[in-house]
Amino acid sequence: MFDLTGKIAVVTGASSGLGADAARAYAKAGANVALLARRQDKLEALAQELRAEGIDALPVGCDVTDEASIEKAIETVIDHFGRIDILLNNAGVAVRGGVDTLSQEDWDRSMNINVKGIYLMCKYVIPHMKAQNYGKIVNISSVNALFGDKNDMFIRHAYNTSKAAVLGLTLGMACSYGQFNITVNAVCPGLFESEMTQNTLFKSEAFLQGYSAQCPMSRPGRRGEVSGPILFFSSDASSYVTGQHVVVDGGTSLV
Ligand SMILES: NC(=O)c1ccc[n+]([C@@H]2O[C@H](COP(=O)([O-])OP(=O)(O)OC[C@H]3O[C@@H](n4cnc5c(N)ncnc54)[C@H](O)[C@@H]3O)[C@@H](O)[C@H]2O)c1
């Protein structure tokens, strides 16, 4: 049920962190992968790693806030692979600050990457999924869509808003495209080390200790631990599951 042999997966923000980990998990499950992001050198390095395992990996430069860039990227993927079965909307940015301090520029950047990016990717991928009557879309949201935090390091109002919007978009799309055998689900990670967090949250020993003390599993997430739930929503293991989200935070949000 989790086998992705012969499937074509598109991953945005594949140049680092959770996106690169998910691309590796897709490859391990047998899928060929299109790696989309802005940093071509990083994409090429990951593509080489996956090709060494016998996977066809295609690095494609793409800025998810730029419609022309997305249109061209999807054209490139279709020219190469002929279809798209899985879309992982992972690209994202976390800007710190509350509404009383955030600049409009930072607010717009968060919304553009985290929300508009998903809308635009789906706009160009869904017609292909509809035509083949098959598709698995997975949107990366966050626990910050569902839970607040008084900790200064977690005050990120534009992030909260954008990640909650991702859940709204997920359920709307799930309702509209189920008839085309397209499922749309979301994953809400808790705290994981990545480029996004390594110079902020992971820099503070006091913060990490506080987080671990609160977390029922007594630690932050490890690299690759989001990939299992992503694989579930990307494979036929979730053939009758749509419009749902799963929280991957070691139980932190329960207490
Ligand atoms: N790390 C965590 O603790 C955590 C927690 C909850 C949710 N998330 C979410 O997981 C996703 C991946 O984040 P990560 O932690 O791996 O961080 P990351 O910074 O390593 O990855 C983000 C990726 O998005 C790409 N990206 C940013 N803007 C882009 C654009 N305009 N066009 C194309 N690509 C763009 C970056 O280049 C990068 O590859 C994000 O959506 C993030 O919000 C992460």
Automatic annotation (TrEMBL):
- What protein family is recorded? Belongs to the short-chain dehydrogenases/reductases (SDR) family.
Q: Does the keyword Isomerase apply?
A: no
Q: Which Gene3D superfamilies match?
A: NAD(P)-binding Rossmann-like Domain (3.40.50.720)
Source organism: Holdemania massiliensis
According to its UniProt record, the EC number is 1.1.1.47
Superkingdom as given in the UniProt entry: Bacteria
Q: Name one GO molecular function term.
A: glucose 1-dehydrogenase [NAD(P)+] activity
Report what the protein is called: Glucose 1-dehydrogenase
**What are the UniProt keywords, alphabetically?**
Oxidoreductase
Give one GO biological process term. bile acid metabolic process
Main EC class of this protein?
Answer: oxidoreductase
Keyword Hydrolase applies: no
